[in-house]
UniProtKB/TrEMBL annotation:
It comes from the Bacteria. It comes from Ectopseudomonas composti. This is DUF3034 family protein. Residues 1-18 form the signal peptide. Keywords: Signal.
Length: 283
């Protein structure tokens, strides 16, 4: 009964006995680069719901639509023992208005991202330490002509991040509160879709990322995210990203995330705000 009571607290004051694996929603959603977490950034959590000696797997599809641009992402992530995660994502960026106005040789850009994440210490809920994970991502831009023309220095690169996540029971006026902070080491232009490094700067930068989510009950979460971006290319500024999201987790096999994303300037076009929708299946 004590275990059931603890699970009930974690799931927002309802007495719930968890099924196999971790608690509902503790695997998060899937970020744009394929790692488990929020929408525009990963968290320290790992994909799926597998615990010690168990596998967890996510497949996902995401679309971000700003009017001038569209980003489509699909991929898969798998974790083992709630300790290590491997992920793959393919991003396709439709240049839309920019391709038409400038008569660009390509009307879309694609990128492959391979990810590795390892839980180093702590636990999201039960340990005295927050869950701390180290992530590595290798990215390869598949259509390098346009990025090279605007000053990108390379078509592929690797980057790393350190993430810390904690679920605070009753931390937001009685609702459970999830906090996440990342420190990323990267020189990717617009995630890497515009290549890596630039004519202005060709070195990795330390970049800050953070998110806050309130779990309204065991199925619904609302929150905000922020992601700092580098500014390596002289032809256009690169804005930091932010979003306001709603996540729905009806069961352990499905997660839906809807967000309003503020992406600022992208490749000379300002005010690239729009809708983010992601669907994730977990097994």
């Amino acid at each position: 009964m004590r275990l059931a009571y603890m699970l009930g607290l974690c799931l927002c004051s309802e007495l719930v006995i968890a099924g196999e694996g971790r608690l509902l929603a503790t695997g998060g959603a899937t970020s744009l680069e394929g790692a488990a977490g929020g929408g525009i950034m990963p968290w320290a959590v790992l994909a799926g719901y597998g615990e010690r000696g168990e596998w967890g797997t996510d497949v996902f599809a995401t679309r971000v639509e700003t009017g001038d641009y569209r980003l489509d992402v699909a991929g898969v992530a798998a974790s083992y023992g709630n300790r290590i995660e491997l992920s793959y994502a393919r991003q396709r960026f439709d240049l839309g208005t920019l391709a038409r106005d400038l008569n660009l040789p390509d009307n879309s850009l694609s990128m492959d991202t391979l990810g590795l994440k390892v839980r180093l210490a702590g636990d999201l809920i039960y340990d005295r330490l927050p869950q701390i994970s180290l992530g590595l991502q290798h990215k390869r831009q598949c259509d390098f002509l346009v990025p090279s023309l605007v000053g990108a220095q390379r078509r592929e690169d690797s980057e790393g991040y350190l993430a810390a996540s904690r679920l605070i029971l009753g931390g937001a006026f009685g609702y459970n509160l999830l906090l996440n902070a990342n420190l990323r080491y990267s020189r990717a232009n617009e995630l890497g879709l515009l290549g890596f490094g630039g004519d202005r700067r060709d070195r990795h930068s330390w970049l800050k990322e953070g998110s806050v989510a309130v779990l309204l009950d065991r199925h619904w979460a609302v929150g905000i995210e922020y992601r700092e971006k580098p500014d390596n290319l002289s032809f256009a500024g690169e804005s930091d990203w932010a979003d306001l999201f709603v996540g729905y987790f009806p069961n352990k096999n499905l997660a839906l995330v809807l967000a309003y994303a503020r992406l600022g300037e992208i490749a000379t076009l300002d005010n690239q705000d729009g809708v983010y929708l992601s669907v994730q299946g977990s097994f």
